[in-house]
Amino acid sequence: MEDARVWDFERSLWVGDAEHYRELIDPECLMVLPEKPFVLSGEEAIEAVQATPRWSEVEFSEQQVSRPQEGLIVLAYRAEAQRGEHGYTAYCTTTIRRIAHENWQVVQHQQTVPLAAG
Hints:
Layout: H1 3-15, H2 18-24, E1 25-32, E2 39-41, H3 42-50, E3 57-69, E4 72-83, E5 86-100, E6 103-112
Parallel strand pairs: 1-6
Antiparallel strand pairs: 1-2, 3-4, 4-5, 5-6
């Protein structure tokens, strides 16, 4: 998958509906998020998204793409998301793997919220 499609795929996870999210998350996926319960399996993450309003927009910066082996893509980036008046910034990693031709799923995702300058 070329870089432009990789970033479109990732963006769709932030702004797409819960059903779209379910299709792209591997049931064996592991996630670490900056809110309790912090560590989630794929099914737990899918359930959490069902009850969470989706972001209306997201911008990525500091983007990096790695392809350590055929059928495996690792992303690292800064996300700035918005939902109405609520904004969110996190540094993220996502690992996706090819299941079949043109069929990719997330197997790992992590978000780190930067500490406020103190």
